[in-house]
Amino acid sequence: MGEITVTINGSQLSGSEGMTILEAAQENGIDIPTLCHRPELTPIGACRICVVEVEGSRTLVGSCHTPITQGMVIYTHSPKVLETRKVIVELLLASHCGSCFMCDKANVCELRRIAADLEVGLPRFRVRKRYYPIEDVSPYIVRDLTKCILCRRCVRACNEIKKARVFGIAYRGFDSKVVVDFDQPIDKDVCQDCDVCISFCPTGALSRVKKLGEEKKGKALVISS
Ligand code: SF4
Ligand code: SF4
Ligand code: FES
């Protein structure tokens, strides 16, 4: 594989042919935030949080799916890039449910971590929120799609790693949704109870069904009159 020279944030670096901008940056210790991307899964460029500036390109490019080319000049943290990433996170949070204090994944939520890194403060946008009833009919998985950011990591993980193909995407635009078959609850005969999708979900949208006695202590909300 041929060697390719690129300039990232003013430093000349080398990578190999076929490498993405994200991989070249990571190999040289430069951190670019990602949400829909995972190295084990096919990149789909769904979230745009990984955008970078490339000299000569009219628009920002998604680093997780754009290969490096000889002589490319890349800026991973320019003011334009940082502002764009911030707006993307603000929009995701604006349509999010906002119940982080009650969420099992609050301390490990990737969306929250990226929001904190980008110093996202109070919402500037008024966006319609998505509300779905919690799906807890499956014996294995609880789905709270109100917290889903449509990164499709669960869809790809189930397809590509488990080869079970349980999930798909249905509807369009704002109504897009991760569904099972024709938008039915997860069927225990289809799902192989492997937890792979849960481990790939960056938010609290997917979690394991709690067995009796596993309830988190102190989680109950007591409202006194
Ligand atoms: S638990 Fe495994 S088989 Fe079931 S939906 Fe998730 S990834 Fe697919
Ligand atoms: S359920 Fe989780 S992994 Fe699946 S698309 Fe939504 S946020 Fe991503
Ligand atoms: S991480 Fe690159 S588009 Fe989502």
How is the topology of this model organized?
Layout: E1 3-8, E2 11-16, H1 21-27, E3 51-54, E4 61-62, E5 73-75, H2 79-94, H3 110-117, E6 141-143, H4 153-161, E7 167-170, E8 177-180, H5 196-200, E9 206-208
Parallel strand pairs: 1-5
Antiparallel strand pairs: 1-2, 3-4, 3-5, 6-9, 7-8
The structure holds iron/sulfur cluster (2 copies) and FE2/S2 (inorganic) cluster.
One iron/sulfur cluster binds next to helix 4 and helix 5.
Structure description:
30% of the residues are buried. By secondary structure, this protein is of the alpha+beta class. A hairpin with a 2-residue loop joins strand 1 and strand 2 (11-16). It folds into 2 domains: 3-77, Roll (Ubiquitin-like (UB roll)), CATH 3.10.20; 88-208, 2-Layer Sandwich (Alpha-Beta Plaits), CATH 3.30.70.20. The chain starts with a strand and ends in a 17-residue tail after the last strand. The chain has helices at residues 21-27, 79-94, 110-117, 153-161, 196-200; strands at 3-8, 11-16, 51-54, 61-62, 73-75, 141-143, 167-170, 177-180, 206-208. The strands form 3 sheets. It has a 5-stranded mixed sheet with strand order 2-1-5-3-4, with helices on both faces. The protein has a two-stranded antiparallel sheet with strand order 6-9. The protein has a two-stranded antiparallel sheet with strand order 7-8. The structure holds iron/sulfur cluster (SF4) (2 copies) and FE2/S2 (inorganic) cluster. The site of one iron/sulfur cluster has 14 residues, from helix 4.
